[in-house]
């Protein structure tokens, strides 16, 4: 069990006030985010058929929760890890045009997650996806989109401060950009996690770019599925989080693979057998639009803006008894 207990922690809001603030943040953010990014809200599935290849494979070792259905024979149905691939298909299916996009409330179960202050078996995020042109598959598009998202998050800080001035956690005024290779060059003796902590502490808010491929050292900064993000055009939005004295990631995003990057990354990952799956075939044949997309953690954003010590203060999930007892004895009330 990995648990950080901050010194003299005291929630500024009661449980009922916290629940009210959660609703306010979720409703307000998604409306402002949709307007700023030109995204329409769509309904989304909680589970998909395994044979489609639509589920997110994450690092390739996490097993999705799966089951069969009475009317589906022996077909394996999987609860989604995320909607990274489904969204791209939906943009084509529903006729979205250039620079139009969608967002959806994504609920998932990641049963292999290591539980701590930030991580839960229950994942709730805004999954979003937007159509871009082939010529826009570049760094400028990625960074300008990150700045748009940061702008909305920063505006939400002001909204929360106006409504809950005693509880808001203040954020830096700008976001910076750095690649995983630049981080390795800068902190060669630190682990990837330690590098992110150091740069987040120094800069306040940072977008760490190019996640998934090997660095000069031969090691990867972090795992990333080979068949949705282009590893040269992706990254994570990370904040320095004083309540826990460490970094907090609120979003993973990127420009999605085209045929060339899909084949290259699947070869590196030793997963070329996926090329025969329906989703991968339509990417290879350019039958889906070029897109940029990602996920923004709903509970993580609430935690960030309200200065909470544990994600369980802003979402209802399941935790080990030892964690529940230790949190309760230190003023951390898990929902």
From TrEMBL:
Residues 23-320 form the Aminoacyl-transfer RNA synthetases class-II family profile domain. CDD domains: AsnA (cd00645). PANTHER family: ASPARTATE--AMMONIA LIGASE. Pathway: Amino-acid biosynthesis; L-asparagine biosynthesis; L-asparagine from L-aspartate (ammonia route): step 1/1. Transmembrane segments: none annotated. The keyword Ligase applies. It comes from Xylocopilactobacillus apis. It is found in: Cytoplasm. GO terms for molecular function: aspartate-ammonia ligase activity; ATP binding; catalytic activity, acting on a protein; transferase activity. It is an enzyme of class 6 (ligase). Pfam families: AsnA. The lineage of its organism: Bacteria, Bacillati, Bacillota, Bacilli, Lactobacillales. GO terms for cellular component: cytosol. This is Aspartate--ammonia ligase. GO terms for biological process: L-asparagine biosynthetic process. Keywords: Amino-acid biosynthesis, Asparagine biosynthesis, ATP-binding, Cytoplasm, Ligase, Nucleotide-binding. It catalyses: L-aspartate + NH4(+) + ATP = L-asparagine + AMP + diphosphate + H(+). Belongs to the class-II aminoacyl-tRNA synthetase family. AsnA subfamily. Its EC number is 6.3.1.1. HAMAP family: AsnA. Coiled coil: none annotated.
């Amino acid at each position: 069990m990995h648990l950080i207990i901050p010194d003299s922690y005291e929630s500024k809001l009661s449980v009922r006030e916290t629940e009210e603030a959660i609703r306010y943040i979720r409703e307000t953010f998604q409306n402002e985010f949709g307007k700023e990014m030109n995204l329409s809200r769509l309904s989304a599935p909680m589970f998909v058929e395994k044979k489609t290849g639509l589920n997110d494979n994450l690092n390739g070792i996490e097993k999705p929760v799966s089951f069969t259905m009475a009317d589906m024979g022996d077909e394996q149905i999987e609860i989604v890890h995320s909607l990274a691939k489904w969204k791209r298909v939906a943009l084509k299916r529903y006729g979205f045009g250039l620079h139009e996009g969608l967002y959806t409330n994504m609920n998932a179960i990641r049963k292999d997650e290591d539980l701590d202050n930030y991580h839960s078996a229950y994942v709730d995020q805004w999954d979003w996806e937007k159509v871009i042109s082939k010529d826009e598959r570049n760094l400028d598009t990625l960074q300008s989109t990150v700045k748009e998202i940061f702008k909305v998050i920063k505006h939400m800080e002001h909204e929360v401060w106006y409504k809950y001035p005693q509880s808001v956690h203040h954020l830096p005024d700008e976001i910076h950009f750095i690649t995983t290779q630049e981080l390795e060059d800068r902190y060669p003796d630190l682990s990837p996690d330690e590098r992110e902590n150091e740069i987040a502490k120094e800069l306040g808010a940072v977008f760490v770019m190019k996640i998934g491929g090997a660095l000069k050292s031969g090691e990867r900064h972090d795992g990333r599925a080979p068949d949705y993000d282009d590893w040269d055009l992706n990254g994570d939005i990370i904040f320095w989080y004083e309540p826990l004295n460490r970094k907090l990631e609120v979003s993973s995003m990127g420009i999605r693979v085209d045929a060339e990057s899909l084949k290259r990354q699947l070869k590196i990952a030793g997963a070329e057998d996926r090329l025969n799956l329906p989703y991968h075939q339509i990417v290879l044949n350019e039958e889906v639009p070029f897109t940029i997309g990602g996920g923004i953690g709903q509970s993580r954003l609430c935690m960030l803006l309200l200065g909470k010590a544990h994600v369980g203060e802003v979402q209802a999930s399941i935790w080990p008894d030892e964690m529940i007892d230790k949190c309760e004895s230190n003023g951390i009330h898990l929902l």
